[in-house]
């Protein structure tokens, strides 16, 4: 498959992601306008915890499967035997993770239970969508993986239509139910494909899976570590404001980053040619231009989107967060290349480099946030992503040209 096919695949995934992400953004805009800053910050923390636990739930096995087994074996695999094993694993991992968040942030028990249910079902969906990607169903896979965002909007809309007071618990219930529905539909979509006879032992994948799990958790925490620190170093009201700024500055970059990763992984696994240098240059220049516009216009776009309670001059914070978004997009390219094509030795070197970013970010947050507030959090994120993206490109250069 050539360049046109690659761009077509990336475009279709991007369109689907924009649709589901649009539902999520609309839901968050409604919440930002309807809830207090403190409640909005709490919803943000809960959703971020959901994303982190979901990323850790399968312990890296989907990507390890892609890396370890050839395509011919994957298309003829007995997927019906793999799904239950990893579903049980997701339940165990997410139950432990939800308990940890309960201890750290003193979450109410029922909301902790909802966090467990949502994370385990949404996280498990990563396996069936990986299978769908193997069969070339990229847009369907991305749509199913983000279906819970649509359910979140539907739940909020139902509360408003029934003239009910909107509370955070109603939002969490809608997400948990949507996650369950998402998992059921994803598994049903996989089982519609003919089941082969090839077995896929998981035990030989443990070393690679451990590497990928470390990378995934580190990546998810880096995307959200500032939000986890702000409630402890400042308060939930500050997190509510910071979350509104982050949604403005980072959303578009998140769409492109997801699309790049979703399309690159299977194509690199199949050793298909991909124009990485041109893609990198295009993403960098376009991202910097968009970030400048977002920062300059933020003084009126933030109150327009989230309400008058968010008025203020946040141009510096939005500019720094936009730079973070550009770096996140650029990071998706070398991380995909290293994850799929890198040797075991390179992967094991890459893990401590990736985890070191967490240490850097945590230290910067502890130093800068008490002194500079939200500006310190955004500055810490930008410096950390310079480090993370730079080390990823250095690791990718050790590979032969694609």
TrEMBL record:
The organism of origin for this protein: Eiseniibacteriota bacterium
GO CC annotation terms, alphabetical: plasma membrane
Main localization, broad class: membrane
Repressor recorded as keyword: no
Lineage: Bacteria, Candidatus Eiseniibacteriota
Keywords, comma-separated and alphabetical: Cell membrane, Membrane, Transmembrane, Transmembrane helix
Keyword Transmembrane helix: yes
Subcellular location as annotated: Cell membrane
InterPro entries noted in UniProt: Poly_Biosynth_Transport
Transmembrane segments: 6-31, 43-66, 86-105, 112-135, 147-164, 171-191, 211-230, 242-261, 281-302, 314-333, 349-369
Domain of life: Bacteria
Protein name in the entry: Polysaccharide biosynthesis protein C-terminal domain-containing protein
Topology of this chain in the membrane: Multi-pass membrane protein
């Amino acid at each position: 498959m050539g360049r046109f096919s690659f761009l077509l695949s990336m475009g279709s995934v991007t369109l689907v992601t924009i649709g589901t992400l649009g539902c999520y953004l609309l839901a968050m805009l409604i919440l930002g306008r309807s809830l207090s800053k403190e409640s909005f910050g709490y919803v943000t923390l809960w959703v971020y915890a959901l994303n982190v636990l979901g990323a850790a739930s399968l312990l890296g096995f989907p990507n390890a499967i892609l890396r370890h087994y050839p395509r011919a074996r994957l298309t003829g695999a007995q997927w019906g035997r793999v799904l239950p094993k990893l579903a049980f694993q997701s339940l165990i991992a997410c139950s432990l993770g939800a308990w940890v968040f309960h201890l750290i942030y003193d979450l109410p028990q029922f909301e902790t239970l909802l966090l467990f249910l949502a994370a385990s079902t949404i996280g498990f969906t990563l396996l069936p969508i990986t299978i769908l990607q193997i069969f070339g169903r990229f847009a369907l896979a991305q749509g199913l993986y983000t279906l819970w965002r649509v359910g979140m909007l539907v739940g909020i809309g139902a509360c408003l239509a029934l003239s009910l007071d909107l509370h955070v618990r109603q939002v969490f219930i809608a997400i948990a139910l949507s996650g369950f529905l998402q998992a059921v539909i994803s598994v049903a979509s996989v089982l519609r494909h003919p089941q082969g006879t090839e077995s896929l032992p998981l035990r030989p994948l443990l070393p690679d899976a451990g590497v990928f799990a470390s990378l995934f958790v580190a990546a998810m925490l880096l995307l959200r570590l500032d939000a986890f620190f702000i409630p402890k170093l400042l308060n939930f009201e500050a997190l509510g404001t910071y979350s509104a700024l982050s949604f403005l500055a980072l959303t578009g970059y998140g769409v492109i980053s997801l699309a790049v990763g979703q399309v690159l992984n299977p194509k690199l696994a199949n050793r298909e040619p991909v124009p990485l240098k041109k893609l990198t240059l295009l993403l960098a220049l376009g991202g910097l231009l968009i970030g400048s516009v977002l920062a300059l216009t933020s003084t009126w776009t933030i109150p327009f989107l989230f309400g008058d309670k968010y008025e203020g001059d946040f141009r510096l914070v939005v500019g720094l967060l936009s730079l973070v978004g550009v770096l996140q997009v650029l990071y998706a390219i070398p991380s995909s290349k290293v994850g799929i094509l890198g040797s075991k030795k390179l992967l094991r070197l890459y893990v401590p480099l990736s985890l070191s970013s967490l240490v850097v970010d945590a230290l910067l947050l502890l130093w800068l946030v008490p002194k500079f507030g939200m500006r310190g959090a955004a500055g810490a994120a930008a410096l950390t992503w310079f480090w993370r993206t730079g080390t990823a490109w250095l690791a990718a250069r050790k590979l032969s040209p694609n």
